[in-house]
Amino acid sequence: MPSLEDALFPSTPGKFKIERSHNMNRQFQRCFASTSTMFLWALFLIALTASYLSFQSFVDSGNRYFTASWGGIQLEKQIRSSAQIHRPGGMSVLVTGAAGFVGSHVSLALKKRGDGVVGLDNFNNYYDPSLKKARQSMLDRQGILVVEGDLNDAGLLANLFDVVAFTHVLHLAAQAGVRYAMENPNSYVHSNIAALVTLLEICKSADPQPAVVWASSSSVYGLNEHVPFSESDRTDRPASLYAATKKAGEEITHS
């Protein structure tokens, strides 16, 4: 039996090198085999991931209108149901600001008349959001869906028009108030000008193009002292940013 010294330090100079070479070859082979296995597993996982993404893309193609966060196919069905017309010669109307005081009453009147109605509101906190939610629930019980969203979201508007061929748009949504414009002027530009342009562009590209009814404000008469107001009165002296944005809206819709 060779001693420990002989095993560690062989008398033949090349013996240690040969055995060391054999050991290194075996280690390299094991490492190569392990690397090959890992590579094969990586290829398998990549193929599995690609298959899943392809399947997911196929599923999503059937839901081209709305993302999951908007309710998907279920929301599309609700929108179609809400927009369904129930009288000869009826209209299919998109009402913006539908959770507001005027918007909720107009939506209800149109629905009772047999027209199809879909509402849109951003439920901001300028007015009590709980009051708007209560109106939304009331309209829902009457078969009117009020979608929560921002008019500046062109994708949302385009999706709504893809689902329903609206014959009319009643644009009542706006950032109201005179004093609040001193605190948050950007909200008036965002809601009363930018949102209006976004909506008009979507309506312009829709087929068929809907008729648009837009609500301005008596504030456009500004410093005019003539009472009662007349449509022929001057509207070039607004007394607030709110009035200026509503006047700008009038000019935009006429352009």
UniProtKB/TrEMBL annotation:
In alphabetical order, the GO MF annotations are:
isomerase activity
Key words of the record: Isomerase, Membrane, NAD, Transmembrane, Transmembrane helix
Report whether Ion transport shows up as a keyword of the record: no
**Which chain regions cross the lipid bilayer?**
31-55
State the InterPro entries in the record.
NAD(P)-bd_dom, NAD(P)-bd_dom_sf
Q: Is NAD found in the keyword set?
A: yes
- All copies of the NAD(P)-binding domain together span 94-254
Similarity annotation:
Belongs to the NAD(P)-dependent epimerase/dehydratase family.
Its recorded name reads: UDP-glucuronate 4-epimerase 4
Q: Which organism is it from?
A: Hibiscus syriacus
The organism's lineage is: Eukaryota, Viridiplantae, Streptophyta, Embryophyta, Tracheophyta
